[in-house]
Amino acid sequence: MNRSSVQGALIRALKKAGVNKKISVHTLRHCYATHLLEQGVNIRVIQRYMGHRSLETTMRYLHLTRKGKEDAYEIIDSFMTGFTYDRT
């Protein structure tokens, strides 16, 4: 199976599902990496799963999502809640 036949199968499946967005097999790699990160998978594990030698390459596939921002806010908020500032 070559790349163009996989892309063709994806396009047919998208049309059948009524999806009108331009999505490629490469787009799915970005989604895969981003969803793994959102689920808490270590970035080095994602790097290995993606088959990248360089962590920089893996970083290009990771996208900050609303969930990622919200999760970070909650972590920072819970961490900072334990701190108090004493002016004395």
From TrEMBL:
<dbReference type="GO" id="GO:0003677">
    <property type="term" value="F:DNA binding"/>
</dbReference>
<feature type="domain" description="Tyr recombinase">
    <location>
        <begin position="1"/>
        <end position="74"/>
    </location>
</feature>
<dbReference type="InterPro" id="IPR002104">
    <property type="entry name" value="Integrase_catalytic"/>
</dbReference>
<dbReference type="InterPro" id="IPR011010">
    <property type="entry name" value="DNA_brk_join_enz"/>
</dbReference>
<dbReference type="Pfam" id="PF00589">
    <property type="entry name" value="Phage_integrase"/>
</dbReference>
<keyword id="KW-0233">DNA recombination</keyword>
<dbReference type="InterPro" id="IPR050090">
    <property type="entry name" value="Tyrosine_recombinase_XerCD"/>
</dbReference>
<dbReference type="InterPro" id="IPR013762">
    <property type="entry name" value="Integrase-like_cat_sf"/>
</dbReference>
<dbReference type="GO" id="GO:0015074">
    <property type="term" value="P:DNA integration"/>
</dbReference>
<dbReference type="GO" id="GO:0006310">
    <property type="term" value="P:DNA recombination"/>
</dbReference>
<protein>
    <recommendedName>
        <fullName>Tyr recombinase domain-containing protein</fullName>
    </recommendedName>
</protein>
